[in-house]
Amino acid sequence: MRGRVIRLALLLLLGALGGCAGTGEERDPRDPYEGFNRGVYRFNDEFDSWVATPVAKVYKKVLHQEIRSRVGNFFANVQDLFIGVNNLLQGKPADAVNDWARFAFNSTFGLLGIHDVASEWGLEKHNEDFGQTFGRWGAPSGPYLVLPFLGSSTVRDGVGTGFDYYFAPLGEVRPIELRNTLYGLYLVNTRADLLDASRILEEAALDRYVFQRDAFLQRRRSLIYDGNAPREKLE
Amino acid sequence: MKRIVAAFILFCGLVAPAFAQEAPDALVKTVTLEVVDLITKDKEIKSGNRAKLIQVIEAKVLPHFNFTAMTALAMGQNWAKANPEQKKLLTEHFKTLLVRTYASALAAYSEQKFDFRPLRAKPNDTDVTVNVRVIQPGAQPVTIDYSMEKTANGWKVYDVMVGGVSLVANYRTEFGNTVRNSGIDGLIKDLQTKNKSLEKGAKK
Asked: Hey, are the CB atoms on A222 and B108 less than 8 Å from each other?
């Protein structure tokens, strides 16, 4: 059964890619594979509108905001462990200690992380991942990439995402069925959180692909500098 | 005639400073809190009356934005190639689009807590960034940075950065692509079509 689903997904993906070979558009230097990326983007978009969004909408309708926010907190807490590791790798030991203290407090007093008590106590949540760490170390982002299912990325951030998944504590959960259920819950909860944002994006953009790409690249740059990126001069 | 001019100058001298003197960070705080208060109390807006929300934004927020500057920045080099009539139309349609987007964002996130950061600027600076953070449980706060410029009529916003993403910069590539493919009039038409389709969607 699973094999068949994967094969079907690949087939759909190839179909989407076939429809986009060689566009005459002038290329953006940051996005040399625009034709390919737009194909994957279209595939993701189809998957999103036929599967992910409907599921997320039902999920949002069934579960109260309060519960969804607890679910979000649970996953956010697990991630704090490696957010700390990345802060350490980026030479910010104080931030790393902050992240691990968050994990310790939230896992215990916050009942396995479902309550974010650490934030209330002034320990701020950070946003770090391996892609940002590589960026801090000076790795250039490389060309923009749209990954199947995962969406916007770059060569550097794609490798980073691989590391993120490899080290993710959730991956260690056994039995496998429980692990997969948690993964599924994480994905659906995340998508439900983004329903508002994706609607706003749809409203704001003339060309969603370009708008999303530029926002992603700006956002990543800002994250690498922890929000203090040198301002790019607009003339 | 001379007397009228003199009176006018005197009037401006008395009135303008009252507007200009409000510090940019204080201005952002007052306006944000006022608007959030208005929309959380208004039952019609809460139940999804988009037209009324847009009215509130137009009355309270728009006077503090410099849309001509925003449009010029988003257009980049193409701005100089546009004639006055095109500039007027571009600004008007871009404004409509931004207001609509802003309304959607406000409607979605107005329940959050705000943290107004103290301004880091010298007293005689004429170009500052005002930082606001939206606090949300279980996630890193979202930063909203308003780039503001001092003008004769008080401080005006010319760019908004959300989570490090500059709104003006984000429209640059889109605008550039459209102008290259179908000219400035093509962009005006695209913006118009976009706004019309959003209006239709909102009425449903």
From this structure: no
